[in-house]
Amino acid sequence: MSGRGEIDRLVTLLGRLPGLGPRSARRAALALLRQPHARMLPLAEAMEQAARAVRTCSTCGNLDTTDPCGICADPARDDGLVCVVENVGDLWALERAGVHRGVYQVLGGTLSALSGMGPDDLNVQPLFDRIAAGGVREVILALGTTVEGATTMHWLHERLARFDVQVSRVGQGVPVGGALDVLDDGTLAAAIMARRPA
Amino acid sequence: MSGRGEIDRLVTLLGRLPGLGPRSARRAALALLRQPHARMLPLAEAMEQAARAVRTCSTCGNLDTTDPCGICADPARDDGLVCVVENVGDLWALERAGVHRGVYQVLGGTLSALSGMGPDDLNVQPLFDRIAAGGVREVILALGTTVEGATTMHWLHERLARFDVQVSRVGQGVPVGGALDVLDDGTLAAAIMARRPA
Ligand SMILES: [Zn+2]
Ligand SMILES: [Zn+2]
């Protein structure tokens, strides 16, 4: 494969995407190389536009092209009901399920001794600020039931006890040891509907 | 997911890549969106450069940044020994195995009644021209042992009988019903070494 710098580089970079091993990276590269104008250039352009446009919502931590994000800015959403999720992938999963009519707080991770994530590494202060400013009625803890997720929910629950706010957690439906964003929409809906006080 | 045109478009286009379902497309998009400058823009640039640079070798059908391709242009390769493969992915697999020191002919498909691929749809005339021009000693048929691969090898064998050229096919090592580019390097090496007259 010598003397093909551009092709090798494409395969290498595609292979670094999550979910793409070396073999699927080669297949993807070939599919793109076979249709440079119909497939590769549109994807490249979409990436450049997204890279230019995307920003992190300073209110909730969501990724969007506006700050505040479309969810935070939507007057139809209930900003008195805040759902705490680990990452944007979980937020997307809940939005696809279409069951949460409130807003979000995206932590950007969970407490983990192993990976060295402590409370200061979580994007959680904006939530405390929002609650302190008033208007937040309920916080739903929608974290996975891994050890890290449970630890984080426990810590958050303690921190939130200082505020006059109802705290619930998604209950029924999240399998033990499971991540949130692999669940089907029905399970996510059940988990949200069956939330209970934390 | 409304109001996020750039992000939705990125997920949609990524999801059209072979090997990426909706879920892995979302994961890949998130990984890129989290590091727009470190990951997304370099990949976009690599795609644009590859799209600009890539061309199909008019001699063998390989994809490369030069025409003739690096393999056809390499004086160290034996251009008297031509290996016929279905597609560029198979060529890449054989190059990774490093067992073929000759050149290639990339058919761009196999004969298939189902998908309507006939002899005129195969990139095979350049092979006949190369043989007619003299200098080709042996043609190795390195197609998969699917029905289509076997049909194509049979047809090619008949067509090549008109020429004064030895025809062999990869034998030992290619599993029945198997595609070529999923094989490990050792199996590919065995298949090439154990080739027999067709
Ligand atoms: Zn937001
Ligand atoms: Zn070539």
UniProtKB/TrEMBL annotation, chains A, B:
CDD domains: TOPRIM_recR. A zinc finger (C4-type) spans 57-72. Residues 80-175 form the Toprim domain. The lineage of its organism: Bacteria, Pseudomonadati, Pseudomonadota, Alphaproteobacteria, Acetobacterales. Pfam families: RecR_C, RecR_HhH, RecR_ZnF, Toprim_4. One of its GO terms (biological process) is DNA repair. Coiled coil: none annotated. Belongs to the RecR family. GO terms for molecular function: DNA binding; zinc ion binding. This is Recombination protein RecR. It comes from Komagataeibacter europaeus. PANTHER family: RECOMBINATION PROTEIN RECR. PROSITE patterns: RECR, TOPRIM. May play a role in DNA repair. It seems to be involved in an RecBC-independent recombinational process of DNA repair. It may act with RecF and RecO. The gene is recR. Keywords: DNA damage, DNA recombination, DNA repair, Metal-binding, Zinc, Zinc-finger.
